[in-house]
Design a protein that fits this description.
The chain has 376 residues and is α+β, with helices and mostly antiparallel strands. The chain folds into 3 domains: 114 residues, no CATH class; 87 residues, no CATH class; 122 residues, no CATH class. The protein contains 11 helices and 16 strands. The strands form 6 sheets. Strands 15-14-13-12-16 form a 5-stranded antiparallel β-sheet, with helices on both faces. Strand 13 and strand 14 form a beta hairpin. It is elongated. Keywords: Membrane, Transmembrane, Transmembrane helix.
């Protein structure tokens, strides 16, 4: 026989347990739903790596993996399944066609795209890093409904290799500056690397200076292009700049037969102004000017040789029918200079300017062309 009273007690007792269990399950469900609705952290997917050399290091993060993780979270938040989210990332043609044909899916996709546009991922300072520096990775969104948690995390730079450093003085011993010419008529040729890579900034401007004198200083700075090339080899130059002093130029007077070239100027000028029965000329010497070029290519061959130009400025008084007119011009010669510090007189060619009634204007033109006054 069934004990009715005992059965009632059992049902009553088990009923309380069942109700308690259901309550716990309900709480777990509510908690899970609440958790699922909270913004998600993606920091566990972030991997920061460092490369390069101490002082010139670079920071990187796995942007593709991080971007995919953010996209998956956003797509799932907008109602796509885990598989659908992955298919969208893979640009699967089937899911993309379904989205295009199904207004509901298209709506979800558009909302997801809009949300992704509000999310910004950034790795702060990422270049010219040294061991021990701090870099900050951050993720944020301009939308209050973003499923991605706004966060920042600081990483310490480590593992960068040390650069092998040399000084600019040591560099110049291996790659010397070539100094040519004479005192007050000097110039330099700067060294270059493979494929004509410039070692120094402003090479053309420096090499264009043709009237250098002993004691002058040139500002030499290693070019950023060359420093970048060295960096790829684990090397650098410090300091990268210096003042390079011009020394050792011989005096121009060591060209032993300059005056022989100069002596030809008077005869050249006189030949241009021979008196006639109607016109007379008075020719008065004013001053001499010289220009030295360390490398000049001849007309008839490609060999480059040093060249000197030596001209004399003359005042010419021309008288015709008792009326006088005064003007100025220069006449002279240019010739190659041999290795023995002698002008090759046999190679000399005549040169002249244009008549000018303004002496200062004529002299200014000469100086602008690189001539300097020469005291014979």
């Amino acid at each position: 026989m069934v004990d009715v009273d005992k059965l009632k007690e059992t049902v009553k007792s088990n009923g309380k347990t069942l109700i308690g269990g259901l309550a716990i399950i309900a709480l777990i469900g509510i908690g899970y739903t609440y958790y699922q609705g909270q913004p998600k952290s993606i920091l566990n997917k972030v991997k920061i790596t460092f490369s390069g050399y101490d002082g010139f290091g670079n920071a990187h993060y796995n942007d593709r993996e991080v971007g995919n993780e953010i996209s998956k979270i956003v797509y799932k938040k907008m109602g796509f399944s885990k598989k659908q989210a992955q298919d969208i990332l893979d640009n699967d043609p089937i899911i993309m066609t379904d989205i295009r044909l199904d207004p509901k899916l298209q709506g979800k996709f558009d909302k997801a795209s809009a949300m992704l546009g509000t999310i910004r991922v950034e790795l702060g300072r990422s270049e010219n890093l040294s061991n021990g520096d701090k870099v900050i990775f951050s993720v944020q969104s301009s939308s209050s409904k973003s499923p991605i948690k706004t966060q920042k995390k600081t990483y310490t730079v480590k593992g960068l290799s040390k650069l092998k450093s040399t000084s600019i003085d040591e560099f110049l011993k291996e790659h010397p500056v070539v100094l040519k010419g004479y005192n007050h008529y000097g110039s330099v040729t700067l060294p270059k690397g493979k494929h004509d890579l410039d070692f120094f900034d402003n090479r053309y401007q420096i090499e264009e200076q043709k009237n250098l004198a002993n004691g002058d200083e040139l500002s030499l700075t290693i070019s950023e292009d060359y420093l970048h090339q060295l960096l790829n080899e684990g090397k650098t130059i410090k300091p990268k700049s210096k003042k390079w002093k011009v020394t050792g130029l011989k005096e121009i007077t060591e060209i032993s037969n300059l005056n022989d070239l100069l002596a030809k100027n008077d005869d050249l000028a006189k030949s241009k102004y021979a008196n006639t029965s109607y016109t007379t000329y008075q020719i008065e010497k004013q001053s001499h000017y010289m220009k030295y070029s360390p490398e000049t290519q001849g007309y008839w061959n490609s060999e480059e040789k040093p060249e000197v130009r030596l001209v004399t400025v003359y005042k010419i008084t021309e008288t015709y029918n008792d009326k006088s007119r005064v003007y100025y011009n220069y006449y002279g010669y240019y010739a190659n200079v041999g290795n023995n510090d002698q002008v090759e007189l046999e190679s000399s060619e005549s040169t002249s300017g244009y008549t000018d009634e303004d002496l200062e204007n004529l002299i200014s033109d000469l100086k602008a062309s690189g001539f300097k006054e020469y005291d014979a």
